[in-house]
Amino acid sequence: MKTITDIKGTFKLHNGIDMPYFGLGVYLSDNDKEVIDAVQWALDEGYRHIDTASIYKNEEGVGKAIRNSHVPREEVFVVSKVWNADQGYKSTLKAFEESLKRLQLDYLDLYLIHWPVKGKYNETWKALEKLYTDGRIKAIGVSNFLQHHLQNLMQTSEIKPMVNQMEFHPYLVQQDLIEFCEKHDIQYEAWSPMMQGKIFELSILDDLAKKYEKTVAQIVLRWNLQKGVVTIPKSSKKQRIIDNSNLFDFELSKEDVNYIDALEKNQRLGPDPDNFNF
Predict the structure, then answer these.
(1) Is 56 a catalytic residue?
(2) pTM score, two decimals?
(3) Which residues, given as ranges, of the chain have pLDDT below 50?
(4) Distance between CA atoms of 96 and 172, rounded to whole angstroms?
(5) CATH architecture observed for domain 10-261
(6) Is 49 annotated as a binding residue?
(7) Per-residue pLDDT, 30
(8) CA distances from 90 to 19, 50, 144, 254 (A)
(9) If we measure between CA atoms, which residue out of 224, 206, 204 comes closest to residue 215?
(10) 3-state DSSP: the chain helix, strand, coil percent, rounded to 5?
């Protein structure tokens, strides 16, 4: 059972690096004032984990907000991802340098393969291994990798992924995949924990919100953490960023965690990792 303490708390990755289990996602935040404000508000609130990607087209803004912050760079866990069109060995090395240049940072804390592009992700992984062994990245991982992708990758890799970032919410739990990752010491991480806002339509969660005197969002995010899942809710609204982090003064009972687990419908809101064409 992983310990949850406060907004700056961490889960330890298999290489010994501490990864803050709560962070800010910046998908669809524009590259200028919107993303700069969001990152600065988050850091002011105590967030220490910022997740971006080259395809989000806002790395410049993220980097600027981090550099302008009162928080020292080494205290912020910065994540980016290599996009599908850049996959392959040499092109991934180049894409990484371009991401760092846009962020204007010296290193990344975590770099992920964004999607398992067939016939390419093994070579892409070799590039991540090189960047990791060269000390350019503190940790390396993947995103949207199902069990068979992970198994295929681990057959040829020298270093196994430290993180797998997946779509994860009450309608897509994928407990078997979580357990596979736990068995192999791969940290599970959620994207779209709020179901792109659709969790607020799940009246079934309203009773839990009343019981704990919390919002539905806070219930779901706390559920993420209690399952040992790193979570990075996206918001560009100051109050929502503050509210999302108000998770550390209550704990869901085991029965209520199981109750949310049981909402599983294997229902994706994002693309299927076995069937995407971008």
Answers:
(1) yes
(2) 0.97
(3) none
(4) 31
(5) Alpha-Beta Barrel (3.20)
(6) no
(7) 87
(8) 28, 26, 22, 47
(9) 206
(10) 45, 15, 40
